[in-house]
Amino acid sequence: MFTTPCPLILASASPRRQEFLTQLGLSFHVQPAIIDETPRPGEAPVQFAQRLATAKAESMASDQPQACIIGADTVVSLGTTLFGKPADQQEALTILKNLQGKTHLVTTGLAIICRQRDIKETTTVTSQVTFDTFPDPVLQAYIETGDPMDKAGAYGIQGQGAFLVRSITGSWSNIVGLPVNTLIRTLLRLELLQATG
Fold it and tell me: What CATH number corresponds to the domain at position 114?
């Protein structure tokens, strides 16, 4: 469906992000970035997501100046509290209980860098997710599937965790981990992507 005028590199190990790009028929390489993902004191979720996405892309840009590098980072927040990937099942349960019956935000920072073309574009996309309420045994049964353990906020809306969600406002793909509409529109505008038709 699309072609790129330069090599495309995804600076992320996320299988969800890789799947989105594959579904679009894009040819790309995966080079996960190794960066410090610790939030800074008082850092807002939007700034945190954008900073990490940019750091991921920049970590590859010097060695690959001819490539178009995509960095992305997704954070889940409720008020000023950030919820990352749970360290263990107990933390997963704590996170899910905190999110129950409330509306939280899912923000993905997106960075696109191509040094050779002097391109550095960053943005964020935020979606709202409202959880329903379930008893602890139901949450524990979900946790024991293993699905929450590699996901910010301890759930995956695209998988078994979909039952937790009462409603969403905004981009569904953003909640999964990549705002596909924003990414494609940006790549087209920057002339880093062309339709094959």
Answer: 3.90.950.10
